[in-house]
Amino acid sequence: MKEILRKTIKFILKIVAIIIYRPKIKGKEKLEEVQGALICPNHVHALDSVVLVLMNKRTIRVLAKESLFKFKILKWLAGIFGVYPVKDGKKSMESMKISLKLLKNNELLLIFPEGTRNGMAKGVKPKEGAIKLAIKANVPIIPVGIQGSFKAFTKVRLNIGEPIYYSEYKEEINNKELLEELTQDLMNKIVKLRDEKI
Questions:
Q1: What is the CA radius of gyration of the chain?
Q2: 131-167 residues labelled b (16+ CB within 10 A) or e (exposed)
Q3: pLDDT tens-digit profile of 117-164?
């Protein structure tokens, strides 16, 4: 029953998203070709993760701050879509534990390396957690470039890149310099996808 409800609500919300944002996706098949993977897009707007989740056939899991779950409607929707609450103040440790479990179950998990909306534009240093998680879980990262302002009735574009594998760095998982370098390389790939005309 819950699965039928989830699919019905997702279908309705997808129609709404199509009407409002007319989303176009390039490379959707790349999400079908992998098992467990981290999805790493640039963070443009509060709704960019919602559109990405709605426009893909496979379920994409998302972690969210527990404080957001105080709103009943959000808590209800989160339960249907498999959004996981992470306690404020214990975000790093708890999110790593939940993320590893999801990835080892061959799920798709969305993480924003920017850490905040428009982090690159604000000069915020990208987070290295995605790279570390990919190495620990032995899964690829799929970079995504999100294009658009997310103003109502404007176009949104999702440009999905090739999976990036990090298994060769297993022995260097605590090498901070290397993690920073790999994170910057990931961000460069995301920016390239964001700026590519599709």
A1: 16
A2: bbbbbbbebbbbbbbbbbebeeeeebbbbbbebbebe
A3: 777 777 778 889 999 999 999 999 999 999 999 999 999 999 999 999
Domain limits at 132?
2-195
Give the predicted TM-score (pTM) of the model: 0.90
- Phi first, then psi, for residue 184 (nearest 5°) are -65, -40
DSSP output for 77-107? HHHHHTEEEE-TT-HHHHHHHHHHHHHHTT-
**Total domain count for the chain?**
1
- Going by C-alpha positions, the residue among 31, 82, 39 that lies closest to residue 61 is 82
Distances (CA, A) of 141 to 58, 95, 135: 16, 17, 10
